[in-house]
Fold each of these.
Amino acid sequence: MKDIITLGIESSCDETSVAIVKNGREVLTNVINTQIEIHKQFGGVVPEIASRKHIENISNVTKFALKEANLNFNDIDIVACTYGPGLVGALLVGVGYAKALSFALDKPLVGVNHIEGHIAANYINFSELEPPFLCLVISGGHTHLVYVKNYTEFEILGKTRDDAIGEAYDKVARVIGLEYPGGPKIDKLAKEGQANIKLPETYFDNLDFSFSGIKTAVLNLNHKEPNINKADLCASFEKATTDMLINNTEKAIKNMKVEKIALAGGVSANSYIREKFKDLGEKLKIHVYYPELKLCTDNAAMIASAGYYNFIAGRISGLDLNAVPNLKIGEI
Ligand code: KG4
Ligand code: ZN
């Protein structure tokens, strides 16, 4: 069978990324232009600035990706782009650019759900991984326990009722004086501390999550005790949030009788979370997959991979594709 080359575009937040992926799993190039240095001075992503930077960068990032892969536009078979969820102005840049490319090259356009993209990052790293499996998507905007039935069908088993876990990490980091994005800084500082501070954990009858309670508890504690040991606070926050993730995931594994689970999204780069899930896998004798660090956070290779599987399933978009900022997983 002829190889299928997908060009993927990601612009849902503060990374302008273009990747070229062969047959859904082999990355030829994955160029990521991050705007972190720009947004850092504001303590978080400024949507208007993000859109402008995407516009400035997208064409050059695409040309650079083609050069790196030693290909030209005519070698591309599919154009895939994130169309939601995300910041509307940022998404529109990628969607508009992808539509123009698809029209000019006369090649199919495939709109990709960003969360489904995060899940697909695992296909790139693990050639043997095939659905069904359970996936815990933990990122700056999302916290979902998803049953991946096949490459294009998903069932949400649980999700956050308030803050996404990454949002809580970034907020906690900000109040204790760590720079945006706070997740990696908490990860590092926690290694110097002990999880000796009791923080509230929230559980429901179903598999939903809540991280606003623990976030507020840390903010109050830091306010009341400004000299509190920050490393201990980070270690305790990491432990309590991970306990909640493990609790629900373990229940879901038992309910669904799955034999493999995957982690996905920026927060799955966290070293403590990776270690605890590895332990869980050993305890339950199931396979635990997590993508390499570069594929955990936002990148276009995962979008190209998910786009390829959408294409194979006949899910092709029209030139009327629009950005959908609050797109839900499994929604078309
Ligand atoms: O997946 P992502 O790049 O963007 C979204 O789709 O939201 O995730 C970004 C989030 C941020 O909240 C960031 O602080 C968090 O992932 N993050 C981490 C780590 N690396 C990134 N959180 C905890 N530990 C890390 N090592
Ligand atoms: Zn993301």
Amino acid sequence: MLVAVAFVMSVTIASAAPIVIKFSHVVAENTPKGQMANKFKQLVDERLSDKVQVEVFPNSQLFGDNKVLEAMILGDVQMAAPSLSKFKKYTKSLQIFDLPFLFKDMAAVEKFQQSPVGQKLLVATQKKGLIGLGYLHNGFKQLSANDVLRVPADAKGKKFRIQSSDVLAAQFEALGAMPLKKPFSEVFTLLQTKAIDGQENSWSNIYSKKFYEVQPHITESNHGVIDYFVITSTEFWMGLPDDIRVEVKKALDEAIVFGNKIAADKAISDRQKIIDSKRCTITKLTDAERQQWVDAMKPVWKQFEKEIGKEYLEAAVSSN
Ligand code: SIN
């Protein structure tokens, strides 16, 4: 009798335990991704608190960007939103987002992501056990360095930290520079100790991680984009009860809309905060100077066109 009661109690307790979603990311909380993750947690808490519990781990506290996807497949983390530049092992097609000077503005990025071709990319990693739940914006990348970078020749021979993307490596090699693939968590120290000369990132990452305090010069190049793939493991996602999956997705979609608004605001306000700090010079390019960067970097498109897929490239170009 006692054994039977204990058994019933343990089944009841087990079935009442909420589903835990660990959401791991590498940036600070005062960023588009940090704010989106916190909003997602807030919405899930409000709507599903007895059934689903979201735990957010910012600043690479749980996993760095070099480990998180493997950990997700192993079930050690359920959600993340790595930069689109970090999926090389899982699909070649997402490399499209790394092509320099591909999108003319964030509206074009959004248009491409929401197009049928952009939506098709959400399942590009599925065979490898990961499923894209949506895109999140951060914004355009700027170049920062120890010296002023006005024309491509200024980058020659310099070491730049890049994300783990072969397209980004080719982009810096096209300038005669030396790219180094390093996790985001190491960038500040690499810059501070001058182990590297420069890096490329969005205004919000340069501000929130204080790169501008250890980089005297920023070139407003807008040469590429940092956006995110909100991702989960196929096994975890398909294992959720249908009604819970629908509610979690709804909360996530709303959090992404919220995060995208923050991204648009921060691209302006964090840029201004960096200018106001007077810690570094901001180099604005003339049309002729900008054209030099386009001419130097754009040949990379041809190099990756086949790997990425012509269909994706054409759709991205036409979103402009
Ligand atoms: C991120 O925004 O998640 C990090 C980008 C980077 O690695 O530079």
Amino acid sequence: MKEHSIKLAILRALAQGGFHSGEELGTMLGVSRAAISKHIKGIQAWGVDVYRVQGKGYQLAEPMQLLDEQTLQAQFGDLVELIPVIDSTNQYLLDRADSLQSGAVCLAEYQAKGRGRRGREWVSPFGANLYMSMYWRLDAGMAAAMGLSLVVGVAIVEALEELGLEGVKLKWPNDLYYQDKKLAGILVEMSGQAGAAANLVIGMGMNLTMPEKTEGITQPWASLKDVANTGTLDRNELAITLINTLHQALTDYELKGMQGFVTRWNRLDNFLDRPIKLIMGPREITGICRGINEQGAVLLETDNGVESFIGGEISLRLSKCE
Ligand code: ATP
Ligand code: BTN
């Protein structure tokens, strides 16, 4: 069997619900109970909350709905690949950018090296969240890529609203927030220029049912299950909706750029009219957040009036004096 296939088969069995004994799993997969016990440890290391009860066997602490490649490919054909265990879906597409067609998607259940901006870790436990990336060849070139992460963020929040999920907001430039906690992040990366065009990979990680005991996240976080009306959400359908949303947002952006976009962003800005600080290396500036301008720069009102700030090195935080 391939490297992770036993663990994946165990997870498929556990995802059905109920208890599954080591013996039953071992017989099903043609391995010993000791081997099953070892694989369960590996599954726990992927961030899955699975426990054992003497005499009954193993059970998941929370229900898990796995992604299904057939369901996804019924919608998108070979454009979408599901690779359950991966280093990073962004890296996977970046490595293959030369042979991909715009709109190609990679999804995963677990990322061993999921990443955020500036090489920070994106914690990616198995089966609990969504990790997806889309390749896009942007004819407008690299300079247009900054606006793109803003446009994608707005499109995703609006898609959630259409599903009846209210209260998800945006943090400039690349995060989705719920009740002042980070729900999702967007990461736009480039694999170099193809003539004037840019080879882009747009990645999104969205927490759906992340176990409360998940370790390694250095700031408050939320899961989509915290939002009202998410009880009946189907994980595969949500993935399909978000892939369609991403595709549409990129197509629109190619046609219209940021035109008409400021109002849409400002309606959803989590920090609009609130005191914030912008951190730029050793420098910090505090003021009141006034949303964004047509170039996608964040606007900060200080004693000097309203100033705009743009660039990948800027971090926005709530200022303590709220
Ligand atoms: P900024 O982008 O403004 O600098 P940021 O802190 O959100 O701020 P990012 O690089 O965008 O930084 O994202 C990485 C941050 O996200 C880290 O603080 C990390 O602990 C946190 N993080 C990692 N995984 C998750 C996750 N699954 N859910 C929420 N937050 C996460
Ligand atoms: C951020 O907030 O800094 C962006 C986080 C982006 C995480 C996603 S998960 C899918 C894709 N693959 C990665 O390694 N990162 C992005």
Amino acid sequence: MATTLLTGGTVVSATGRTAADVLLDGETIAAVLAPGSTLLGHDLAASVDTVIDATGKYVIPGGIDAHTHMQLPFGGTSASDTFETGTRAAAWGGTTTMVDFAVQRAGERVQDGLAHWHELAAGNCAIDYGFHQIVGGVDADSLAALPGLIDEGISSFKMFMAYPGVFYADDAQILRAMQVAADTGLLTMMHAENGPVIDVLAEQLIEKGKTSPYFHGVARAWQMEEEATHRAIMLSHLTGAPLYVVHVSAKQAVEQLAWARDNGQNVFGETCPQYLYLSLEDQLGASSEEWGDFEGAKWVCSTPLRSKHEGHQHHMWQALRTNDIQMVSTDHCPFCMKDQKTLGQGDFRAIPNGIGSVEHRLDLMYQGVVTGQITLERWVELTSTTPARMFGMYGKKGVIAPGADADIVVYDPSGHTSIGVGKTHHMNMDHSAWEGYEIDGHVDTVISRGKVVVDDGAYLGTKGDGRFVKRGLSQYLI
Ligand code: DUC
Ligand code: ZN
Ligand code: ZN
């Protein structure tokens, strides 16, 4: 087994920071030691295979992105990153584990959807990966299949209160699925937007000729996110099923989650970098058109970007500090402008929904440390430790400790990263929603289960290195 020693760095965890050396033995962390330690009289630096000098840098557990959509079929096309390209881009950005969504649609068997997702990922990933299960058709057959997911290492499933006719589940279906979740320990993930109301609002806008991408955000009113979040919380309360609300963007939805948590409920919220930095008005760009031009399609995602005049971003950062929001994932769902986003020219409803960020989450969240929005420790907690605990991987993932997988990032706080196509951009997209963002900080070295996959601007990983992670039940419940 190859041995590696990271020396001279500051090891940062969710609870503190300390000067320490980290010894890796093959795929596993063997020891966290006082700087310059010897072990049984051996000068470690002289006896290991590789020494990585982390002087002046942070040594943190590899990022865990718990919400991605590689190759997701959506709106007549499919998300443009494959498991090969998407996991490679993730590695470039310091993410060493991702949890993607296997898809079951109405009329299909859950087992078949899951088997298909395994086929797409197996042998193609640069980093470790797990799956949640999308249940796009709740019926007797899919409900009966849910308990079996746990043995497959899939301890969470997602339903949609949005997208009627596609993935939508009505309240009765959600109730039944949550009853199964309460009985089994599965974690229910919810896309909380009132889809039927949003579809009427969207149709009315189109009838008035308001067809540009900007109106995607207008149709998806925050009231319908708040309402759906509340409804999901009440169904969770009624059934006793823990609830995880994905991609929260409206401050009113955050308030609902905070209220439920204050009420003692096992209710959790995830936001994404786009809701912390980007706004509906950014989507108008530099256009001279009153309602923006088609460039705005780059930022069409659901839930949508919210207006900067309504205080959502400020509230979201605060919720990250107070733990009213516990998670930051990307909802990475990339589509190119060419041939994909352009499907919605003349009708925003046909623009495939999604933004690509899998490569940038650690950097973007580190800016919250730079600007004083969150602490260094909270950065690690949000990007690695809580995702591991929330989704049943903690101990192996999310921590630098003996016995854990050697998933480690050396992050240089004095470094710099310029985001954009032709700069740092390895996602399979012809644009970046983050074009022009300048980051104070840099992912220097990325180690995935003991193997250096990114170092000093070079990619050293291999397709197929990533293994499927069988997850346990959530370790975050109260
Ligand atoms: N939201 C997106 O932006 N893309 C895919 C699915 C979703 O819910
Ligand atoms: Zn969603
Ligand atoms: Zn999603």
